[in-house]
Amino acid sequence: MASLVQEPCCTAPRVALVGNPNCGKTALFNALTGARQKVANFPGVTVERKAGLALTPAGRRAQIVDLPGTYSLRARSPDEAVTRDVVLGRLAGEAQPDILVCVADATNLRLVLRLVMELRQLGQPMVLVLNMFDIAERQGIRIDREGLSQALGVPIVTAVAVRRRGLEAVLQEVDALAERIGPDAAAHDWREPTAQEIRAAHREAERILKLTVKPPLRPDTWTGRLDGVLLHPVAGTLILLAILFLMFQAVFSWATPLMDLIDAGFRLLGRGFAELLPPGLLQSFLVDGVIAGVGSVLVFLPQILILFFFIILLEDFGYMARAAFLMDRLMGAAGLHGRAFIPLLSSFACAIPGIMSARVIDNRRDRFTTILVAPLTTCSARIPVYTLIISAFIPERLVWGFANLQGLVMFGLYAAGILSALAVAFVIRRLLWRGAAEPFLIELPAYKLPDPANVARGLTLRARIFLRRAGTIIFSMMVLIWFLSSFPAPPPGAPGPAIDYSLAGLLGHAIHPLLAPIGFSWQMAVALIPGMAAREVAVGVLGTVYSLGGEVGGGTLAHALAGQWSLASALAFLAWYVFAPQCASTLAVVRRETNSLLWPTILFAYMLALAYGAAFLVFRLASLWPG
Amino acid sequence: MRLSDLSKGDRGVITGIGPSDAASARLGHAIPHDELERRLLEMGFVEGARFQVLHEGLVGRDPIAIKLDDMRLALRRREASAVQVALDERGAAAR
User: Fold this and answer.
1) Can the peptide bond before residue A215 be classed as cis, meaning omega within 30 degrees of 0?
2) In chain A, which residues have their Cβ closer than 8 Å to the Cβ of B55?
3) How far is CA B88 from CA B72, B93, B94, in A?
4) For the residues B8-33, what does the mean pLDDT come to?
5) What is the DSSP letter of A335?
6) Structural domain tally of chain A?
7) Most buried residue, A131, A215, A552, B84, by most Cβ within 10 Å?
8) CA A4 centroid distance within chain
9) How far is A329 from A337, CA to CA, in rounded Å?
10) Where in the numbering of this chain does the FeoB-type G domain appear (chain A) (predicted)?
11) Domain range for residue A105?
12) Distance (Å, rounded) from C-alpha A363 to C-alpha A301?
């Protein structure tokens, strides 16, 4: 032992958490590592890698990495492939773990036993953690731990990750296993099992289960009872719609006060700097470029967090699989997989997390189809643009006695996004990948009360990812845009707005002839260019164009627009925004997720074509409208 | 009899995993039959497992939610057509 202490693996063993989906693996990871977590990607792939440190009782600094959930080492999705490659030590740039911690839901052992048997073949030190042991005890499931441990040939500990129980035991076992890390541990001959071998493994698991686990005395009846309603073809669908309705209400109404607060804060900050600094380039850079730019992005944080709050809550509760079940047929009609529901739902906050969450879809074609249509759903960055144009051009009045006309138009824009996403998916499946549909086969996990600490941790993680993005890509884009719209400066005493002389102005004028047929003025053309950084920036730019342009005489921007644009142009602008590929970060993420330039190019081209076509149609039709 | 032919409430035991309807029909699976068989096996569709059909989808009674031994799963009827089953007497009589 003394000689081994020098080995880094023994003082800082690499520990990987493996397990079926929904086994509480991430909760265990959170409990073990606490706040000492690092989120990045696995090398060469875009699967999220969560790693952290835990101090063992013997003083080892265990490096713990959370691997994506899987039923077997035969990977079916990019996420599962990462689990396989890391465990087998095949992922370049990621060291093979020294110790495997297999996490199991103690109330649902059947499938995990086969995974344990498969992992055991690798010959690496391993421990099986029976998580959610309190629920198993409450249900009266009796597990002969001694017998199970002997039959599987691995040590077993019990834990309740969300109550932070059993963590010490897990880490003690890591200590014990760290003594056994040998140079021969990596020698293994794993290959994909055949159907017959899986059958044999099942029989063996069944035999072990019969010997060591007695069925529950008080089985969970809640899941069955809840499913009676939540999976009901009619009631379940209505409940799903009600949940979605509540979500969007929350995103749009609960977030408003917070967003106003952030907005006011940045305005105050900007004004403060404007007073502190002498007018000039530096002031303009800090106030108009940095502060206004970052503020215009940060303002979406409340909406994104509220949306993710719902998504994480529903996921932890076990509802997402039910939603996929209820939506599968509708999605299937458009050629999408039931699981595409989750990415498309996330895309209402922002297409980027939506596209990233498309990884839950096993099949490459289904995943790419979902990625290609996700940017069509109305993300929150379109909201400021929609709100501005609607408040400027659509009168606030009741129609049919109860509906607000402005709200109705907003709803119409959302519906246009959803319907076009489904329609495009349908066309893609018809044109590119005919026939062949990926199997829909998912576990419906038992319902569980979400753990507040886990929800909070998930939200913090999302906030951090968003802020990092806002701090890097978006920030640099904003600076670039500020540069484009400030340089070169107009000649002294020149008539007309300053931006007219800048690079952005020149670009806007240059593309204006192309956009004239769809009713765009050159100011609208200018707004589109910085809108590529983030859609909502267009609002800020319109503000700049019209105030730098000296055309806003004290009135609000909406007021100014109402005076400058025709209704047909405004409607065409809205139609453009439903479809336009107006977000450089989305294209960058698609490039990363598909690992090719082809797909972002296709995405850009088809969305541009749709946007131009839709704006053209709307402009021409609206121009025909009398009055 | 195949799992895909059953209705809500039917229960029985799985007798085999074979080629699905889609394998012979022109609707192709995105994955070869052997892969589908292994995926079904990995999710617990194994000879001798007991099941009950819990729910059917709104449109075309598809997909179906089933209880399989002590877990719950959802799958499309197209995949379910690869699962051969024997119905319990009572379940069969109720049909």
Assistant:
1) no
2) 227, 231-233, 236, 325
3) 19, 9, 10
4) 74
5) T
6) 3
7) A131
8) 43
9) 9
10) 12-180
11) 4-220
12) 32
Q: Which of B17, B52, B55, B61 to mutate to test the interface with A (most CBs of A within 10 A)?
A: B55
State the pLDDT at residue A186.
53
In this prediction the pTM is 0.81
Residue type at A155 in one-letter notation: P
* Dist. CA A45–CA A86, nearest whole Å: 12
Could you tell me the two tokens for A75? Answer: 């990977």
Per-residue 3-state assignment (H helix, E strand, C coil) for A48-113? EEEEEEEECCCCCEEEEEECCCCCCCCCCCHHHHHHHHHHHCCCCCCCCCCEEEEEEECCCCHHHH
A466 within a domain of the structure (yes/no): no
Question: Both tokens of residue A65?
Answer: 């990495």
Q: Are A270 and A291 in contact (CB under 8 A)?
A: yes
Amino acid code (one letter) for A542: L
Nearest C-alpha neighbor of A248 from the set A415, A466, A458, A453: A415
Domain of residue B59, residue span: 3-94
Q: Which of residues 192-251 of A touch B (CB under 8 A)?
A: 193-195, 198-199, 202-203, 206, 215, 219, 223-224, 227, 231-234, 236-237
Q: What CATH number has the domain bearing residue A106? A: 3.40.50.300
Q: How many separate domains does chain B show? A: 1
Here the CATH number for the domain that contains residue B44 is 2.30.30.90
Res. A56: pLDDT tops 80: yes
Q: How far is Cα A103 from Cα A163, in angstroms, rounded to an integer? A: 16
Q: Which residues contact B93 (CB under 8 A, 6 or more apart)?
A: none
Same domain, A484 and A619: yes
Question: Could you check whether the bond before residue A488 is cis, i.e. omega within 30 degrees of 0?
Answer: yes
Residues of chain B in contact with residue A71, where contact means CB-CB under 8 angstroms, are 42-43
Burial A106-119 (b: 16+ CB within 10 A, else e): bbbbbbbbbbbbbb
Q: Supply the mean pLDDT for chain B.
A: 84
Compute the average pLDDT of residues A418-447: 84
Contact A227 B72 (CB under 8 A): yes
Q: What pLDDT does A320 receive?
A: 86
C-alpha span between A348 and A251 (Å, rounded): 10
pLDDT digits (tens, 9 = 90+) for A60-110: 999 999 998 999 998 887 788 889 999 988 888 888 899 999 999 999 998
Predicted ipTM > 0.85? yes
